Amino acid sequence: MSYFSIFFQYAGQYLKTRLTYRADMAVEIFSDLLFQAVNLIFILVVFGHTSLLKGWSKDEMVFIYGFFLVPFAIFGAFFNIWDFTDRYIVKGEMDRILTRPIHSLFQIILERMELESLFGVVTGLAIMFYAGNNLGLSLHWYDPFIFLILVAGGALVYAGIFVTLASIGFWSDSRTDIMPMMYNIGNYGRYPVDIYNRIIRYVLTWILPFAFVGVYPAAYFLGREEWYIYAFITPLIGVIFFAISVFLWNIGVTKYRGAGN
Amino acid sequence: MGKYLEMIRIRFLMMLAYRTNYYSGILIYSINIGAYYFLWSAIYGDKPSIQHLSIVQMTTYIAVAWMARAFYFNNIDREIALEIKEGKVAIEMIRPYNYLSMKMMQGLGEGIFRILFFSVPGMVIVYFIFPIQFTSHPATWLYFLVSIILSFVINTQINLLTGIATFFLFNNDGLIRAKRVVIDLFSGLILPISFFPGWAQSIMGYLPFQGISYIPSMIFTEGFQGSGVIHGLLNQALWCVVLFIPIQVLWATAKRQLIVQGG
């Protein structure tokens, strides 16, 4: 069976299990929406007291946040590996994964997917259209395609960073809180990077490139030409970081010894 | 009374055994404080003050709001929900103590641990990183102390309410998550209540949430002066008393319709 058909088989099963508990799913989507609304409210309230933030207007900030939500939702739907060490290494579940005929990382993605996170894509698009409309942005015929590429780049940046962190579990299964820490650092990418100092900006661009999830790609649609170069290397950065992470993962798998019992 | 003090002590010791888990927590809170510090610096730009708060007061506000969160925050809503789902609550009810008071004491044990091993060192660390000002008025410190104790009580009462709701909803993970988001926003953790537009402020005036973070943080940064401090403290004290009523009503109703599945 090809990876594609396996994916759709798993997704179909997943939907069936979720739709059995519709009320629970509705509440979950609602609380996600609430969470997304909080950040939006923050931006809106703050702009009641200032008209520009380091040269960015309210609608531009809102647009960047809307863009950020899309790759983040895709990442959240497929890369639930924040508890990888606990769930798969410490409990020895990785043994089972390795007996499966597909790539171990892909198997974990299938098992841990949370498709309801994809609702964030809808929220993100709605926010972008609202802000874009206020800004009077116009779309070229090729913009939707560029959008898809930039979103994929952003999602790969996130995936790359978190798969790399998960791979550490193969070498050391001691408890660390590095994952939640990284989620919080990731929030820095929701805002324009020029509000941070030089060091943080450098880190967010080249070391933990969360800026490529929000502000850089969004700058393309906002017509901020000084950021174009960063916008266009977004897919490249995504592919590089994801490739490194898969490389590390593959080495890590060979170091896996099982929990043994 | 002795048994409740013992509860606080045991929870404190339990937390102490896992204290290394908390060092990373300080780092996470510092990262969050950092994000908001940079945002606010950009928002202030050249403005000397917004809504009567200077940038230094604002930074102090964020730092103290997050560090105080470590004190009042607890997971007893989740614990209660779990004990109800697993049916353990039936055993808890026949034990010779009041279940809800016991939960509150456990939360307090956790809070005392966190204030000593999380908030205080965390505050010292962020003091060296960000421009924060500590007041030199002893009275302010005293008011702040009273205020965060009241904020702990209010937050814990809301957690108890959320926990007891499991009796009626059976599965309330969503409610617990939603409550957390609502508290972060409406308590003034993310941004001071005084920044909201007037209509939103007047709605929030009727809600208990600002007693959790906004009032203690404003007292600490001396954004409240004179009678403002007293009003704030009275508001918190009032909510502590008012919230007691729905808890008792819900708890009495819940006990009557308790269904224990298995056990």
From TrEMBL, chain A:
A Pfam family reported for this protein in Swiss-Prot or TrEMBL: ABC2_membrane_6
- Origin: domain of life: Bacteria
Keywords associated with the record: Membrane, Transmembrane, Transmembrane helix
TM region positions: 25-50, 62-82, 115-133, 145-171, 199-221, 227-249
Query: InterPro entries from the entry?
Result: ABC-2_transporter-like
Q: What is this protein called?
A: ABC-2 family transporter protein
Organism field: Fictibacillus terranigra
Q: What is the lineage of its organism?
A: Bacteria, Bacillati, Bacillota, Bacilli, Bacillales
TrEMBL record, chain B:
Q: Which residues form a coiled coil?
A: none
- InterPro entries in the cross-refs: ABC-2_transporter-like
> Pfam families recorded for this chain?
ABC2_membrane_6
The residue ranges crossing the membrane are: 21-43, 49-68, 111-130, 142-169, 181-200, 236-254
Q: Which UniProt keywords apply?
A: Membrane, Transmembrane, Transmembrane helix
The identity of this protein, by name, is ABC-2 family transporter protein
| Lineage, broadest ranks | Bacteria, Bacillati, Bacillota, Bacilli, Bacillales
